[in-house]
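Re: beginner question about structure tokens

> Can someone show what the tokenized structure looks like for a real chain? I only ever see the sequence side.

Sure, here's an example I had lying around. Input first:
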Amino acid sequence: MIRTHTCGQLSRKNVNETVTLCGWLSIKRNHGGVIFLNLRDIYGITQVVAKPEKAIFKIAEEIKSEYVIKVTGKVVFRPHGNMNKDMPTGEIELDADSIEVLNTSKPLPFELSEYAGVSEETRLKYRYLDLRMPAMAKIMVLRSRIAGLVRNYLNSLNFNEIETPILTKSTPEGARDFVVPSKNAPGDFYALPQSPQMFKQILMIAGMDRYYQLSRNFRDEDLRSDRQPEHTQIDIEMAFVREDDVIKTVEGLMKEVFSYIGSDIENAFPSFEYEDVMLKYGSDKPDLRFNLEIQDCSDIFKNSAFKTFKDSLNSGSVIRGIKGKNGADFSRGDIDKMTALVKENGAKGLVWLKYKNNKFESPILKFLNDEEMNNLQRTFDLSNGDILFITADKPKKIAPYMGVLRNELIKKLKLKPAKKWAFLWVRHFPLLEWKPDENRYDATHNPFTAPLPEETNKFESNPSDIKSMQYDLVLNGIELGSGSIRNHKRETQEKIFSLMKYAKEEVENRFGMLMNALDFGAPPHGGIGIGFDRLIAIICAADSIRDVIAFPKTASGICPLTDAPSKLDDSQLKELHLKIVK
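And the corresponding structure tokens:
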């Protein structure tokens, strides 16, 4: 190589050595006739000194920001007062004897030292410059190292890394497919995989026993901060396993990853039944860093004189509340905004009670008796200065907007997280949900998820109540992974497709590969897909997964760097037997 060391490698151990460094000129400073150059590469920054008595001083005067240069010189200690303990190379500097310009640079469209006033579109248009930023470079290196760690961990457990096709067949998996026309089969299209779901099940039937890959998945859907049209997933599947086997494997993987970044996490993650987590937190992906729970208080009001609550209970609704610690200072405007928020999410209204000086303040106080107020105080462990919000609705309707209220209280009360990382499992989701507009059932996750064995008797009587062997991994309020034990018997899979109103011909057309394979000795199997981009974004505290992907798309699905997507010319369209209809 044309360098002897990288810009982040030198230390006091290299003092008096003659070395050669290559990199980009980051910053140039002229202090009293001596020029200091910050030379940067992906590994770090080294300070270079160009002294006026040397021939290279003129070159140092002329070179500009982001020039690519090669510097040779002797490693020396910095003057004692100029040492930088916060910098890995902060004890030394390079006394330059020669400077060679390897390439020049035009003035940059934005400063690499800060993003002030720079739009995301500009950053992505010049992504090759954006990635030179030390913070961005650090993320890319960390992503690479964690990908290697994932592979090493799974390899150590006898998993086999197996690639699955990128050009495949369109299957309904919850989002629109990206489709690819075929020149050799006019009128027919490939689809890019939303996930390798059927292929990894096929691999289990093929006897591969343990499979993984860092798979590329594609979804043509509306985008947001944690979604991209293409993303990477740690895809895992195992034969002859139960739920706890998959969970144990994933927890071990997470411990490896977080140990690498210097964080110890709990040995076993908390596990919640879907019904319990919806009651306590109003969400199937709650942020458990905050000790704030929703509680059922229906029994307190079973004989209430408050007509709203009494009528609700008589109609089969439940009454639930949540305490805002030290929230009694909320203004009426604050409360009105929270009421509007829950109404936007389906609530009919919101009752509030402030607890001050050991007594309640509320517009509904005249409807409550002493026993009800005492029970509220005990149930919610109210202290002076707290506020209590209560509402009533059917169990399935009340949970989501109480979850929204919980998240709003976390922000409004400026609660501090009790810990840095909060993992949990949510298990046994409903297998199916009724779609009244379509007069059919649909899978809550995917149609390949198996029901709990003890729930199969409900297929004929009450499919909506069937619990599944579905499990989601949640971290800091973000769904990190989703998986399940799969259907390994054809008859169970056919029952689910039947409830989803898929005709036999449609099942054969869309899922024939898997259905036929189930006839040939399919073993019990299960797995999970973990969002790799989301994992890296959480670790790096990034606002968006776009910040942890080398070449992402914008929120509108455009790549400013390549101008994709783009139009095809007439000859390409003709070759593919396609016509654009406006």
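Each token stands for a local structural state, so reading them left to right follows the chain. Residues 290-412 form a domain with the Gyrase A; domain 2 fold (CATH 3.30.1360.30).
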